[in-house]
Amino acid sequence: MYHGSSIGHGHGQPSQQDLSVVLVTGSYDHEIRFWEAWSGICSRTIARNEAGQINRLAISPDKRLLAAAIHKKIFIYEVAGTSSSPACASQPHSLNPGAVQFHPEGKWVVSGSEDGTIKIWDLRTSHLYRTYENGASVNDVTIHPNQGELISCDQAGVIRQWDLAENSCTLELVSPAGDVPIRSISVAFDGSCLVAGNNKGKCYVWKINDDTSGLPRFQAVTKFQAHNKYLTRCLLSPDVRLLATCSADTTVKIWSIGPSFEFKLEKVLTGHQRWVWDAAFSADSAYLVTASSDHVARLWELSSGETVRQYNGHHKACVCVALNDVNLA
Questions:
Q1: What is the dotted CATH code of the domain comprising 2-328?
Q2: What is the pTM of this model?
Q3: Taking the domains of the chain in order of start, what are their residue ranges?
Q4: Helices in the chain by DSSP H: which ranges?
Q5: Which of 205, 179, 173, 174 minimizes the C-alpha distance to 192?
Q6: WD repeats at which positions (predicted)?
């Protein structure tokens, strides 16, 4: 059961509650680092000597496992372990996977790759369970909150809905910008809307209707220019009141969301010196962690827009971050 966030509850020495926060970053230096969120201390480093940059990270809902998309494979690590060796590894994609996410009940992991496929991996056996042929290079994939569908976006500017029961693509949304690649997608935790961001810094928003409403399943409601440069990530907050967008312009922008899906720029988070690649909200939507090419990850307090902690230690671009600070009953 969800019981809020623990990331912002500590000052000085971390409490037991603070230590329940799992914060992980990945870098082009081939290292995965675990951090004590409030103290900023690196508590564990997984140093990978073999080739392959870390492209994306995900933490299982129960905080036991970390999935890392690394050079054609998905590696699974024990969060509480001490070994740099993975507990298991998937069969390979033919090209780099850039998206990975756990099923909400931790039964399987989904990955999307530059090879144009979306794959589901059974965590109990580490075997491939299902493959979807997307065609174009997959930039992002997410599990719909109803757990019955996947939604992906790709280099051809197309968003697809994949039905897990039917084992097929059931809907294609072609971006109004045509074949401009869609870099990132985010589905609201309550299933109310979908936000997509493209390579030209533009965001598109669709309302997701119930199948019985008589309206189109995805109904376009608005679009806006979030950044004037390449957009790398768009992310809806758990309470669906905020949208974070990350960009090559070195900034992170925080947008408030109105009742009719109006998006208003609330804050511009400045401090990173190079591209901002990834972001993760705290469970209570009060904090945001970001990862940047300047080698650094930052923890932002969104009420003030200030950096409250900086995570130093990577030697090359820090390109992905994963956070799980949900308190479970």
A1: 2.130.10.10
A2: 0.93
A3: 2-328
A4: 16-19
A5: 205
A6: 90-131, 224-257, 269-310
